[in-house]
Structure formats: C-alpha cells, structure tokens
Design brief:
The complex is a heterotrimer of chains A (about 160), B (about 220) and C (about 240). Chain A is about 25% helix and about 25% strand. Chain A has about 160 residues and is of the alpha+beta class. In chain A, a hairpin with a 6-residue loop joins strand 6 and strand 7. Chain B has one domain. Classes of the chains: A alpha+beta (about 160), B mainly alpha (about 220), C mainly alpha (about 240). Chains in contact: A-B, A-C, B-C. At the A-C interface, helix 2 and strand 7 of A face helix 7 of C.
Chain lengths: ~160, ~220, ~240
C-alpha cells in the first residue's frame, strides 16, 4: 500500500460552533450592552456639554470661581449696549435669573435681543453676576418661521 | 481562555524584556516628545500649563502607535501566525493576551511620562497621583483598541502609515476622556465621570475585540 | 422592463428634482424671520447630511454586515460597501463645508468643538481611513473582510452623531424634522422644499452609487481579463 493510499485527504467540515464559545459570545454582548447602558445612564449625559446654562452657572458660581467656561442664555430685550470694545447686555436664564455680560470683540451678524447666545469667558469674582466674555456665539433655534415683511404691526405691537 | 491569554501576554512581555525596545527606544522617544511639547509651549507657557494633560495623552498616543507596530511585528516573524493557526489557539485568547501585554508596556511607559510631566510641565505630584486610576484604565482601553486596530491594519505586514489613520478616530474618545479626567484631577471637576467613560470604553473594546479578532486573524 | 425604465429615469429625475430644489430654495421660499436669507441653506445642508450619515454610510454598513455574514457573503456586497463609503466620504466633506458656511454668519465662527460637529468630523476621518485601508491590501478577500469589520466599527459613530444634540448641550441646533416629539419645526412651502431636497439628494446618492458601482465592476473585469491574458501568454510560451 502506498503512502497516498493510507492518508485520508478528504476535506473535512469546520467544527461546529461549540456551546462554550456561543455562551462566551452571549456574555460579551451582555457586557457590551451593559457598557452602553452605563455610558448613557451616567457619564456622557453631562460630560460633553458645550456650555453651562445661566441657572447652572449661578448655582455653581462659588466652585466655578473665575475659571473660563461657556455660558448660555437669552439676550434680554432692550439691554444691549454697543461699547467701544464690543457689547454689553443682560442674559436671561430659566428661573428669572440673569447675568450681566461684558463682551469684547465684534458680535456675530445675527446678534440681537431675545436670541439664545453662548458666551466664552468667566465671572469677575466668586460672588459676582458680571461675566467678562471674549467671544459671543449665536445659538439659533431649530424652528424656521417665514418672514412676512408685508404684514402690518398693530398699535399694541402685535403683528397681523 | 484566561490561562491561554496569560501565556500569550507572558510570551510578548518576555520578548520585550529581552529586546528592550520599550526601554531604550520607545520611552526615550516619549520623553523627547514631551520635552518638544514643552518647547513648543515656550518657557512661559510650559510650567503649570492647562495643556499638560492633553500633551501627556498625545505623547502616550504616539507611544501606543509605536508599541502596536512592535506588538504586530512579533507576530510577523516567519511561521508564527501559521503555527498559531495550526495549533488552533482561540483568537479571543490571543487578543486578550496581546492587549494585556500592550497594557503593561503602556503602564510602564506611562509612569515614566507622568514623572516627566511632573518635572518638565510642573504638574502637581499629589493631583497627578489622583489621576493614576483614570490613567491606568484609559491606557488599558488604548491597548485593547490598539490591538484590534493593529490587526485591522495588518501590523508588520501592512504599511506603518495606515495604523494612525485607522486608529486615531477610535482613540479620540479615549483621548478626550483621559485628558478631561487628568485635568479634573489637576484643576478640580468631574474626575470619576470621565473615569467611568474610559472604563466603559475599555469594556466595549474588550468585547468587540473578543468577538472580531478571530475574523481579522482569519485573513 | 420596469427595472430598465427606473434605471434610465434615475438620472433625469434626480436632475429635475435638484433643479426644483434650487428654484424653490432661492426664488420661491420666503426668508426666515430671524436668519433671513441664510436660512436657505436648510435646503442643502440637512439633505446632504442625511445622505452622508444615514443613506450612504448606512448602505455601506449594511453591505459590510451582509458581506461578513456567511450566507450572504459575496463580492457584490463588498463592492457596494466600497462605493457607498466613497460617496459617503464626499457627502460628509460637503456636510462639513456647508455647515461651516452656515455657521460663520449665524454662530460667528467657522467651526465649534461641540459634540455634533466633532463626531461628524470623526466619522469623516473614519470614511477616509476606510478608503485608505482598501488601498493598502491587494488580496481581495483580506481587503473585503478587514474593510467590512472597519465599517461596522465606524458605524457606532452614526447613532452618537444623531443623538448628540439630544444627549448633550450643543451649539448646533436640535433636529428640525426628526424631532423627539415627532413635530415638524418648519411649515408650508419651506417644509415642502426641504422634503424635495431630501428626495433629490437621496436620488443623487443612488445615481452616483450606480455609476461608481459600474466603474468598479468594469475595473474588476479589466483586472480579471488582464490576468487571463497573462496566463494565456505564459501558456503559449510554455508550448513553444
């Protein structure tokens, strides 16, 4: 009998997936799911915020001190004053809280009353509600409402 | 699986101990990169800089890239992969072992680079010690991601320039989490929140690696 | 017959809808109450982002998944994934460019490091890395498998981008169409123009994908023919 006759060279099928490895895959998927849930439940929801709101900043003013951060609020109506360095205005939070912003530099094109803005800067002291800003960013909303220049303005200020 | 992973890790670490590439080439490169970063910030900016945590992780990222290529080069020796395939070793164990070995190497390099940051960038020693748990977890996550992406790029067989572009997008969240956590340790803030993100990333990369490393090694 | 007709009509219909979008977007729709004429970018940027993130990246991800699944594994899936990712890379770049053009006059900056922008840029790097990975491997099987795994890993970023404006406070505005309350924040002719732009850019994607796929198929055939000719040449040399 020759060597080739004694050797069985028939291709064999790959071994089926074992129960153990299947169990391991399930465990891995469970771990992955738990990791995602942990990520959503704890860390990410608060950690990657681009700014603090006026309410948040005022609540943590003592710990913020004079560190630089981004602050978001709505420009209070009729409070904008153009200064030689830039602009100053009051910025409203949610719960009737407000911060006075003294900003340096040219404000963006859309900067106006009642618009949400994000300002980069710091409080002047741990107890102050004056915020020295070096940059104003306008945060426009997701709503699109058609402008109707032909509509008339009633004496009470409403547009009809 | 764990026993086999420990064998693979031990093998990689023994090779590293004998070749001393980490000690004589990679760590000195890391320190040099840290000094260059200090020079780039200038004499006034380098000391007590807010950029110190970011620079530390940037240097560690470069060190990681070098070590991944090194880790893959070990597997690239003639006959190694075919031997592993013939022996029928579980790819998940290989992934775990190689990740563990890479993590140990990164931890060792990290200790030296952290000390370098204390000396050259004047980061506070006590605060740096507080950042150590987050550094440990972030570097372990980098090791897992690195092992996975090393296999993806082909390591020793593929072009070395491919690994950075493949891995940087995956490393970015780790870089952010590590930097924020270290910054929080130095300047105050949500230290543990970022630590959790690094931990979750570690679990995620471990899971994905265990599932997919075999698919990559098959090719 | 229907298939042939739809293939023939795809290009002209896409062009008509794109032209309609331009006409409605520039001449018919009114300016926005706050943003004025800047709001006209809403007929380009969201539709381009829709194609970049969901349609093309989604196609590449699904095709990659189908390639990795043994039952549906075929080079067609690999080719579709490759072509879709190439189109996706172009659309992601366009998303970032049109977003920057919109951001400068509204926000006041070309770029902001907020969660939406940063995660989109990372997805762009993923797409470019995918294309680099494909060029690095000559072995067809190896290339297909590694690319498919990489595409699946990169796809994790898509839900992060989608939910980023809900999970985190971002400078980028929240969704206008796919809102969490399922209410449209745009109305009338503006909403219709937005809808047409979404359809137009989606059809544009399929048109580009089809053209790119044909090119890739022709290239593969050319390579195969070249190989056959080389083999035949060698055989002739052997006979001689």
């Amino acid at each position: 009998m020759s060597d080739t006759e004694s050797l069985d060279l028939t291709p064999v099928a790959a071994p089926p997936t074992t129960r153990r490895s299947r169990r391991r895959n399930v465990a891995v998927f469970v771990a992955l799911f738990a990791a995602v849930v942990a990520l959503l439940a704890q860390g990410v929801l608060h950690s990657l915020n681009y700014f603090d709101t006026v309410d948040q900043a005022l609540a943590t003013r003592a710990s913020l001190g004079t560190t630089t951060f981004r602050l978001e609020g709505i420009v209070a109506a009729h409070t904008i004053t153009r200064t030689s360095r830039g602009a100053s205005f009051w910025m409203d939070g949610g719960n009737a809280k407000r911060v006075f912003v003294d900003a340096v530099g040219q404000p963006p094109q859309l900067f106006q009353s009642n618009i949400p803005v994000v300002v980069l800067g710091h409080f002047t002291s741990r107890t102050s509600d004056t915020f020295d800003a070096t940059q104003i960013l306008v945060k426009h909303t997701a709503s699109y409402i058609a402008a109707h220049p032909s509509r008339v303005r009633a004496p009470n200020g409403t547009v009809r | 699986m764990i026993r086999l992973a420990l064998v693979v890790a031990r093998k990689d670490l023994l090779i590293e101990r004998r070749s001393r590439v980490l000690l004589w080439q990679v760590v000195p490169f890391g320190l040099m990169a840290l000094l260059l970063a200090g020079l780039a910030l200038g004499p006034r900016g380098a000391g007590h800089s807010n950029a110190a945590p970011g620079l530390f992780y940037l240097v560690m990222l470069l060190v990681t890239l070098l070590m991944i290529n090194r880790s893959r080069a070990i597997e690239g020796a003639p006959g190694t992969r075919s031997s592993v395939a013939t022996l029928g070793i579980d790819p998940a164990s290989v992934f775990l072992g190689k990740s563990l070995a890479l993590a140990v190497e990164l931890w060792l390099a990290g200790v030296v680079i952290l000390a370098g940051a204390v000396v050259a960038l004047h980061t506070a020693l006590g605060a740096t010690a507080t950042a150590v748990p987050s550094v440990v977890v972030t570097l372990a996550a980098l090791a897992c991601a690195g092992t996975l992406y090393g296999a993806l790029s082909g390591g020793g067989e593929g072009p070395a320039t491919l690994l950075p572009i493949l891995s940087f997008p995956a490393f970015a969240p780790l870089l952010i989490a590590g930097e924020r956590s270290y910054s929080a340790a130095l300047h105050g803030g949500a230290l543990w929140q970022w630590w959790v993100i690094s931990l979750v990333a570690l679990v995620a990369y471990l899971s994905v690696g265990i599932l997919l490393y075999g698919v990559l090694e098959e090719s | 017959m229907m298939k042939l007709l739809s293939q023939r009509l795809l290009g002209p219909v896409t062009l008509v809808l794109l032209a309609l979008t331009v006409w409605l977007g520039i001449w018919v729709t009114p300016p926005d109450r706050i943003q004025g004429n800047l709001a006209r970018l809403v007929y380009v940027h969201p539709a381009v982002a829709w194609v970049a993130l969901y349609v093309s990246f989604g196609t590449a991800t699904i095709a990659s998944g189908l390639y990795l699944w043994r039952r549906t594994r075929s080079m067609v899936m690999d080719r579709v994934a490759h072509c879709a990712m190439e189109v996706s890379a172009v659309f992601i770049i366009l998303t970032l460019i049109t977003g920057s053009i919109w951001g400068r006059p509204t926000w006041g900056v070309w770029w902001a490091w907020d969660a939406r922008l940063t995660s989109t840029a990372i997805l762009g790097v993923f797409a470019l890395a995918y294309l680099a990975l494909r060029r690095a491997n000559d072995d067809v099987e190896v290339r297909a498998r590694r690319s498919a795994v990489f595409a699946l890993l990169a796809a994790i970023n898509v839900p992060i981008i989608h939910f980023s404006v809900q999970w985190w406070k971002t400078l980028h505005q929240n969704a206008t169409v796919f809102t969490s309350t399922r209410t449209l924040l745009i109305h009338g002719i503006m909403a219709w123009t937005l809808l047409i732009s979404f359809v137009a850019f989606t059809l544009l994607f399929f048109w580009l994908l089809r053209a790119r796929y044909r090119l890739e198929e022709a290239r593969d055939e050319e390579v195969a023919r070249g190989l056959e000719e080389a083999l035949a040449e060698r055989q002739r040399e052997g006979v001689r």
